[in-house]
Amino acid sequence: MVKNQKVLTVTQLTEYLKNIIETDPRLSNLWLKGEVSNVSKPSSGHLYLTLKDEYCTLKAVMFRTDYAQIPFKVENGFEVVVRGRIAIYQKGGIYQLYIQEMFPQGIGSLELAFQQLKEELANKGYFDPAVKKPIPKMPNRIGIITSPTGAVIRDFIKVVRRRFPSVDIFLIPTTVQGEDAPPQITRAIKIFNEEFPVDVIVLARGGGSLEELWAFNTGEVARAIFDSKIPIVSAVGHETDFTIADWVADLRAATPSVAGELVVLSLEELKTRLNKLQRHLYQSANSLIKHQIERLNGIEKRLHLAGQGLILKKENQLANLAVQLDALSPLKVLQRGYSVCQDAKGQTILNSSQVDVGDQVNIILNKGFLGCIVNSRKD
Fold this sequence. Notes:
The chain is α/β, with parallel strands linked by helices. It has 11 helices and 13 strands.
C-alpha cells in the first residue's frame, strides 16, 4: 500500500502550503479586525501578539520598521484593525499574520497616542503645578522657537516691540510639523539652556489639525520642556487647541500673540505700576513717620513723668539728709548752752595741749563769740 503512495516530508508539505497561501492575492493584502492579546515586545524591536475574536485566534507579528511607525502603544485588550499578509512560518509550521499597518478601532491612532502619552506623563508628575517655574516679570532676553517664516514670528515680534521696545528677542528657527520637527525643537531648547541663555523661552506655531500639531504631542519634546532650566511658555495653535506641550510647559498661552502679551509688561503697565508703587511708598512713609512721632511723643511723656518722679524722690532724699545733717549740726549743740573754742587759725581746740598760756583764742557761742587770752592751762 505504501509503495503506491507518494510520501511527503514535513518540509515538503509545509513548502507546498506556504506556496499556496503566499501566492493567493486575497491573503497578500488582508484587512482584519480583532482583539489584541499575548502582546510581546522583545529587545529585537518586533511586536508579537495574538489577534482573536469570539471563536478563533491568529498569531501575528509586526516587524520593527512597521511597528516604529505606530504612534500609540499596543496593549492587551485593544480592539484594532490591521492590514497585512498571511504567510507560513516554515520553521514552526504555523501560519500567521504579518502586520504592516495597525489602527485602533473606534478612535484614531493619534488620539489614542495622545491620551496614552498624557496619562503616562501625568503619572510621572510632568503636569504638577509644584514643578512649574515662574515666568520673569521683566525679561531682558526672550528666546523663541518657531518657523522663521509666516505670521507667527511676525505677530510675536510686533506685540513685544509694541509693549516693550527695548527687550531683546532671539529666534532659533525650526520646522514645526513633520518627523524632523521634534528633534529640531528639542535641540533648540537645549541650545537656549546650554549655549545661549535667555530669561524665558516661547515655543510657538499657528493652528492646525492634530496631525499638523503632532510634533508638540511627542514624548521627546515633552521631556525637553520638562528638563529645561529656563521657564517655557507654550503658544501652540489656536485658543481651542491643546497639546502635550501646553500641559508640560510652565505657562500656556492661547496663541503666539497672547504669548507676547504675557512675557513682557507694556510701558503703560509699567508706568501704572510705578505710580501705584510710588503712592504706596508715600503712604507707607507718612504712616511710618506718624507712627514714629506718636511713639516719640509717648516716650517723651514717659520720660517727663519718670523725670518728675526721680526729682521728687531726690528732693525727699535731700530733705531727709538735711534733717539728719541739721540734727548733727554743731549749732544745735551751741543752742543747748555749749560753746566751741578755736585758736587764732580757726582750728577747733579739743585738747588743752593745743594752746599755750598767753595764746589768743575765740569762743563761739550760740549768739556771737568772745576773743580771749589764755591765763592758765591744765592738761
